[in-house]
Specification:
Length: 125
C-alpha cells in the first residue's frame, strides 16, 4: 500500500498534473507525469471512472494500479529520474478491468521509462 506521503490528495494537484504533465497512452491506461519542484517524493493519483464498471470492478482496478505503483516506486525515484518530486496520475480506461496485473504494471513501467528518457534528452540540450 502506498504511504500517505506518496498519494495525491488534492483535486487541484490532479488537475494540474493532467493539464500540464506529460501524457503517455497505453492500451488500458493513460499516465500523466509532471515534475513537482515543491516536493521531494513521488506522489500517485488514480482516476477510475464509472465507465470502467461497477464499484467492485473500479476498486479492483484501483487496487491493482496501487500495487503496481508501489512496486515501481523505486524506479520512479531512481537517480536517472529528474531531481525533485514527481506527480503521477493514472487514468484507467474501460478495458483495464479485463487487463491482468502484469499489463497494468508494464504500462506504468513504460510510462516511467519514456518520461525519464524524455527528461534526460531535454536536460542535455
Amino acid at each position: 500500500m502506498l504511504a500517505k506521503a506518496h498519494r495525491i490528495t488534492r483535486g487541484s494537484d490532479y488537475r494540474t498534473t493532467v493539464r500540464r504533465g506529460s501524457r503517455f497512452s497505453g492500451a488500458v491506461t493513460v499516465t500523466y507525469i509532471r515534475p513537482n519542484p515543491d516536493s521531494d517524493v513521488v506522489r500517485f493519483g488514480f482516476i477510475v471512472s464509472k465507465a470502467v464498471g461497477n464499484a467492485v470492478h473500479r476498486n479492483l482496478v484501483r487496487r491493482r494500479l496501487k500495487a503496481a505503483a508501489y512496486d515501481l516506486l523505486p524506479h520512479f525515484s531512481s537517480p536517472a529520474a529528474p531531481a525533485g518530486g514527481l506527480d503521477v496520475v493514472v487514468r484507467a480506461l474501460p478495458a483495464s478491468v479485463q487487463a491482468p496485473w502484469a499489463s497494468l504494471h508494464g504500462e506504468l513501467l513504460d510510462a516511467s521509462t519514456r518520461f525519464t528518457s524524455r527528461s534526460q534528452t531535454r536536460s542535455s540540450q
